[in-house]
Amino acid sequence: MQTNPTESILLRTLKGESTERPPVWFMRQAGRVLPSYLEIKKQYTFWQMMQNPEVAAQVTLLPVEDLGVDAAILFSDILVVPYAMGMGLDFTDAGPTFDEPLAFRENPINGLFDDPTKLDYIYAVIDEINRTKPAHIPLIGFCGAPLTVLLFMLQGLGRKGDFPDAIRFIYENRETTKQLIDALTDMSIEYIKGQIKHGIDVFQLFDTHAGLLPFDVYNELFLPPVRKIAQVVRDAGLPFIFFPKGIGTGIAKLTPEEADFLSVDWQTSLTNARKLVHPEIGLQGNVDPRLLFAPQEEIEKELKKYLRFGAENQNWIFNLGHGFMPGIPFENARFLADWAKNADWKRS
Ligand SMILES: O=C(O)CCc1c2[nH]c(c1CC(=O)O)Cc1[nH]c(c(CC(=O)O)c1CCC(=O)O)Cc1[nH]c(c(CC(=O)O)c1CCC(=O)O)Cc1[nH]c(c(CCC(=O)O)c1CC(=O)O)C2
């Protein structure tokens, strides 16, 4: 067993090394539950926070201090890419909204004009994070996968749940959908290359709404661009984590071309996921974030179910099945991180 304490435990696990415990980080770890974040948020809009390198870097690093996680994830949003493609975007109390959603336009392709410089502020944030972060804490970069981002672009309003007009558009306009996927994939790749150039250490692709299409359609239209994106990340020598939320047993159909590590939602137990998923793909997940509304004794009882899996599986990153939800008590988030770092994983 390797025990160099200055080397990142997350990177060691991603490289396939043995570690004394699983590495720990959480989706949505910076926003939503940290009192320190909620305090900063009182002074700025979300756009202002994202666009100010000092503030965005500070927020990115808050959970390292406040929760003790093993990695930082860039404080940004998946919808910055359509914004850079010319779509008017606003973050409102009702969630993100786009002006003139694509599904309702006469010609959805013609109105898109890529302007990669609209992402430059994010590279300034990455530079600032790298200047200020502890050396042993890796930075995770991310963007949304083509399906999830396209659903927002087509529907316009993120809180409509199941994106009904967007799904209908995809079925009724197959050729235009393919053109939109290509445009979105190209822009995402440019953005990812920018993140890599500025020094992210790991990349995660969020396909939060992957489960909203039948797997065959998802496989035909949306997995090829995922493979293309994965290749770009790998060619740069970075590990690639893929989070296709809600695809159920579709996880059995994924290959190492699509993921070095697969982030699993809470619908499938990790033990079952391990049986289904290709053996060369590592796993990440999958504590149900809703559990964190429970008293700590109840949380601990559930967490103990992970001990056996953790003892038997080195290629596993401890995380949630999806992000922290607003309103989860900070003490419970901290309890979760402490538990995962201090449990007796029986690995030595
Ligand atoms: O996060 C919300 O409050 C909801 C609004 C929303 C946003 N993007 C969105 C949604 C839809 C949704 O998540 O349901 C759309 C969005 N953003 C993101 C995802 C991917 C996912 O979480 O599965 C999605 C799709 C999720 C979905 O539709 O369920 C990614 C995202 N947004 C964000 C972050 C950074 C972070 O939380 O640390 C991250 C990802 C990295 C990570 O896991 O940490 C940040 C974000 N996005 C957003 C906000 C709120 C802005 C405001 O105060 O006006 C905030 C900040 C905050 O939570 O206080 C806007």
From TrEMBL:
Q: Which GO terms describe its biological process?
A: protoporphyrinogen IX biosynthetic process
What is the enzyme's class at the highest EC level? lyase
Pfam families recorded for this chain? URO-D
Gene3D superfamilies (alphabetical) = 3.20.20.210
List the NCBIfam families hit by this protein, alphabetically.
Answer: hemE (TIGR01464)
Please report which protein family the annotation says this sequence is part of: Belongs to the uroporphyrinogen decarboxylase family.
- Write the protein's name: Uroporphyrinogen decarboxylase
Give the organism, scientific name.
Prolixibacter bellariivorans
Q: Which gene encodes it?
A: hemE
